[in-house]
Amino acid sequence: MLNFMVWVWLGVTALALFIEAVTMSLVSVWCAVGALVCVFTAYAGVSIATQLLIFVVISLLAFAAVRPLTRRFVDPHITPTNADRLLGLRAKVTEEINNEIPSGAVYIDGKIWTARSAEGGIIIPKGEMVEVAWMEGVKLIVKSETAVPAA
């Protein structure tokens, strides 16, 4: 009959894989790798203290080796785009920017973008040059030095 600790480590492996399957966020797969290695160490008759040490070391090594490679697949909030290259650049207003209507557009990098003023109640006239402060979805939020307060 197999050693009792072999069954314990098989149980730990199964539990860690179950937790991973339920969460799908790479929280316990590292422990499954460590526990699987310990199945073989327990079968070989290694002491329980050494098995625990091997479990911790292998789990940490698996985490350290693979986690950096998987970060981009786990975090769904990061959507890589090249649009942030527009931040800080100057754009030409092609349609008066008025947040109260709301209306406004700018020309930058060969494209027309919907734009809004970062200053809120400021009207930025057509033809003026502005700086892109940030983005909200597909809208550029721009700043102007010569803006006129809305009436």
Q: How would you describe the overall organization of this protein?
A:
With 151 residues, the protein is of the alpha+beta class. The protein folds into two domains: 4-74, no CATH class; 83-149, Nucleic acid-binding proteins (OB fold (Dihydrolipoamide Acetyltransferase, E2P), Beta Barrel). It is built from three helices and seven strands, in the order H-H-H-E-E-E-E-E-E-E. It has helices at residues 4-23, 29-43, 48-74, and strands spanning 90-98, 103-108, 111-117, 122-124, 129-136, 139-143, 148-149. The chain has a five-stranded mixed β-barrel. Strand 2 and strand 3 form a beta hairpin. Helix 1 (4-23) runs antiparallel to helix 2 and helix 2 packs antiparallel against helix 3. The longest helix has 27 residues, at 48-74. It is rod-shaped and about 80 Å long. The model has no long low-confidence stretch (mean pLDDT 85).
How confident is the prediction overall: mean pLDDT?
85
How far is the first residue's CA from the last residue's CA?
88 Å
Classify the helix fraction into a percent range.
40-55%
Task: Return the domain count.
Answer: 2
Q: Give the C-alpha Rg.
A: 29 Å
Q: Characterize the overall form.
A: rod-shaped
Strand/helix succession? HHHEEEEEEE
Low confidence ranges: none
Number of helices: 3
Biggest sheet record: 5 strands, mixed, barrel
By helix and strand content, what is the structural category?
Answer: alpha+beta
| Strands, total number | 7
Strand content: 25-35%
What is the topology, as strand order, of the major beta sheet? 1-2-3-6-5
